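Researcher: For the record, we're logging two predictions in this thread. I'll number them. Prediction 1 follows.
Model: Prediction 1, sequence and structure:
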Amino acid sequence: MGFPIYLDYCATTPVDPEVSEAMIACLQHPQGFGNPSSRSHYYGLQASQQIERARRQVSDLINAKPQEIIWTSGATEANNLALQGLASNFEINNCHIISSKIEHSSILNVCQQLQQRGARLSYLATDQYGLIDSQQLLSQITENTRLVSLSHVNNEIGVIQNIQAIGRQLRQRGILFHVDAVQSVGKLPINVKTMNIDLMSLSAHKVYGPKGIGALYIREDLQSLLSPQLYGGGQEFGLRSGTLATHQIIGMGTAFKLAKQKLASESQQLMLLRNRLWNGLKKIEAVVCHGSLEHRIASNLNVGFKGIKAETLMMACPDIAVSSGSACYSMQQQASHVLMAIGCSETLAQSSIRFSLGRFTTAEEIDQTIELVTEKVKQLRSLAKKNDYCYHYACP
């Protein structure tokens, strides 16, 4: 029996063979097992040198300096370090932070905690395509606005925000700008300097690297403003203590090196496959694509199948691995807050599936997916109609 077709790359990506080879070599070779903080001997020095090479590989992809990359356990920790680390240095009762209604839970939940501690939060709305109006952002700024935190690409609908324009406006006003780039790094060109980004969260496992490792880019002259959230031996310039996981860091560095090499060609190939998928699925009666198709990463397609619950359709298609939204909410059986924020009804939100493609997706898999989903949607609608319990196709 073969494996299901994997179309959930926004949740996580398979580790690239070159990445796993680099990690295994680190684990098996005597040069890789040393504690990188033990630089007084050969083994620690070798591990430290490999970590610094990986730091350069990550910084090269986003045009940062190596010393501006801080290793974390993943993007959730990076988001926490950025927001809570900065807020610790602000007078919390006079601190205004702006984010949006469609952010990832690792941003929204941190914002909620800061609000409970006395900070004032504003959450930007989007239009029906998931795009933020920069003029709306400017209208929310007050004399106490200290930080704006936004995702470059939304993890559910793949919509790209105009980070460069927003960054320029915020830099002119002296407001710090944090960007969650988990879904955009390796998929879109990123230059933290020209985009005026002050802090940026990164993750390895969305870029064909291992889970359990990420990074926070912090502009060099701002690092003194950040309070650490973990205390201990003072690793990572005193901002993130703890013995570094050399093999995971090497994996992330290798993944980012490959992402830089493959970015242009991979994006072009994924766009062709994504369009092939949509051209097939849109022939099904009563389907809708959520979010802007124009301002969207090549690998993402979020589709609503009116009259069918997403969970039912996914159960009917065990040979396809997809999701109904963020992996972080997959066990909660609730409508996507992102889809609700862009104007979907709860019914339509619960009828929507995210298809996300990646490096190892083939045209044959796309064609098989179209055929299977088309067949199952027709079957489920016919069954629902026969039993008189379906949603009406015309429901919003």
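Researcher: Logged. Prediction 2.
Model: Prediction 2, sequence and structure:
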Amino acid sequence: MKIKQDQSRFRQIVRGQIKKNLRKFISKGELIGRQGKETIAIPLPQIDIPRFRYGTRNAGGVGQGEGEVGDPVQQGGDPNQPGQGKKAGEMPGEHAIEADINLDELAEILGEELELPRIQPRGEKQIATERDKYSGIRRVGPESLRHFKRTYREALKRQIASGTYVHNNPIIVPIREDKRFRSWKTTKIPQSNAVIIYMMDVSGSMGDEQKEIVRIESFWIDTWLRSQYKGLQSRYIIHDATAREVDAHTFFHTRESGGTMISSAYRLAQRIIEEEYPKDQWNIYPFHFSDGDNWSQDDTARCMQILREYMFPTCNVFCYGQVESPYGSGQFMKDLEHEFPDDERIILSEIRDKDGIVASIKEFLGKGR
């Protein structure tokens, strides 16, 4: 019991340290490289792990070999030569550790820290996940699943039938044959489907720093949405003057250049949705990241048409994040604000640098759609 209490206390300390440093982790992207299949390794240099420390009492003495009781132990080297130890320092040592935390728990901490509301899924439920449901009674099982009322009833029936029940002194003592335990069966519970379609401008004006911002923000968006949907898929589109679908590694590491035609990405996203993700069965989240440059006003007009006629009626919400670049004009954000003022079907976010990632995530996810 004491060990369990200590483990629980340690988990509380770890959780507190994560919340304290979460914004630093988000803006610097420290956690992405530490991601496993289901957990994240959190570096926590502030926690000093308990360990044995040996005192100075009875420090003298020898182990083996020649010598008398009480002779000091040499520190190595020639016993006739003075020691060559290092000069004593003034600062305490740093005791850095890593604590594994489940991705679902990390998402919960993210939601608490950024005050993100739970998402209300729309559409039909399609994905079936397995859950254990207690639905019956059996004669064997662990004590933790013992059914008190059924066990009491069996013991009472046995004592009445055997004539050992005393009405004036109703003491019921169950024996092994009286015990009943809850049993379960595995059932399939439908879960809501969701797909995220990431689109990123990879034209010449989007440098490595801008792509790193997209990578970090996409990781945290994924972490939160996966905690809300058990059937989540991610698709990736990159574009300059043309668009193509790629895998996650290519999306985050590509180094391309060229002009920019944003409508090419929107048309490809539309085709993917039409062919694979019916709106009555899927919750659809397109995220587009760009520095705001586009080839022409004619192409910008085509983008507005796709958004108005297809994306808004089909998707839960359309999210556009504009990453500030020294080479980008940022005009596309202005065009969206002019075309769709106060339209709740689109969420716009300006990301000036890595320190702006936290505010951008809250803008995108803070409405719970």
